[in-house]
Amino acid sequence: xxxxxxxxxxxxxxxxxxxxxxxxxxxxxxxxxxxxxxxxxxxxxxxxxxxxxxxxxxxxxxxxxxxxxxxxxxxxxxxxxxxxxxxxxxxxxxxxxxxxxxxxxxxxxxxxxxxxxxxxxxxxxxxxxxxxxxxxxxxxxxxxxxxxxxxxxxxxxxxxxxxxxxxxxxxxxxxxxxxxxxxxxxxxxxxxxxxxxxxxxxxxxxxxxxxxxxxxxxxxxxxxxxxxxxxxxxxxxxxxxxxxxxxxxxxxxxxxxxxxxxxxxxxxxxxxxxxxxxxxxxxxxxxxxxxxxxxxxxxxxxxxxxxxxxxxxxxxxxxxxxxxxxxxxxxxxxxxxxxxxxxxxxxxxxxxxxxxxxxxxxxxxxxxxxxxxxxxxxxxx
Length: 381
Ligand code: 9Z3
Hints:
By secondary structure, the protein is an alpha/beta fold. It has nine helices and 16 strands. It folds into two domains: 14-201 and 247-342 and 353-380, CoaB-like (Rossmann fold); 204-245, no CATH class. Strands 7-4-1-8-11-12-13-14 form an eight-stranded mixed beta sheet, with helices on both faces. A two-stranded antiparallel ribbon has the order 2-3. It comes from Schizothecium vesticola.
């Protein structure tokens, strides 16, 4: 007897399976529904106006060690890149959805927070019991205030917070999907410092991890499970050690490019500390995820230079000019460099210049071309 011919079932898509598993296993942040409602209204408003909209992600993502989180792992990012970029995007005519780590730097208020000064140092007593800006700070504050008011009053800026890595991924997925009506006018600018490792929920303690075994007998008596994440090394008493065993966070950039936001332009950042691998890693990420631009930066020089890595073109370094040099280009002291700067001999720059002031116009130029190409292709079809 002949075997029946099996019906043609497509092979399972491993990226989709990993996505499904991750988002089912890791609970969404409690405000996700509230945030998606705000994001939908904001996106639809700007999509209807035909305005470009950028999702800027910013700040570090925490890795909780306990479900009722007392302790977590964090990273260095204060959100400077994201908050500063958001201001330049607004200046370039974008609406900005700013998805940031709670309490990290925010556009506009960043000029007066997290600095060595307290914001009260910018103020003085004015006439009739009023409070006004100090003379030295007034002009700049007025400028920042006007830009901030304009962004708010024209509904150009929506600010949404996240805390943990799983909050971030849930928010990113939902917002990216909501950006569909923008088509190519949607830009995703992923500057958040995303953790590569996490504790999966099935290995995460519900309660605060104990540093002694004082409660073990109570737990044993009540037959409650005792959380166990300790190394069994006999050299150090078991009760004094905490061994943290982290899984890799699944890479969702491919899902983002192919599924969540297939028409938007996607810009990711690549952070390294070793200059000899930066460009290679950026190119690798681009090849692997097939998105549109990777901006590489080194921890030690990130405020002075970045490298643009995009498909089919040579790497492009963008640097702040040395003080007094005026023109910002790929040149430092007349020497064209296509290698990273030496962090020990960074040039004295103009303190008023920010590298995001060079990055955003360059990204916008690429985005404009991307939109044009998309529209041309659509007309042909
Ligand atoms: C960056 O590389 C950002 O530029 C910084 C900004 C985090 C260095 P600050 O907040 O720092 O201004 O102090 N962000 C992306 C780093 C990242 O996590 N990339 C991931 C990856 O390379 C995900 S796309 O795999």
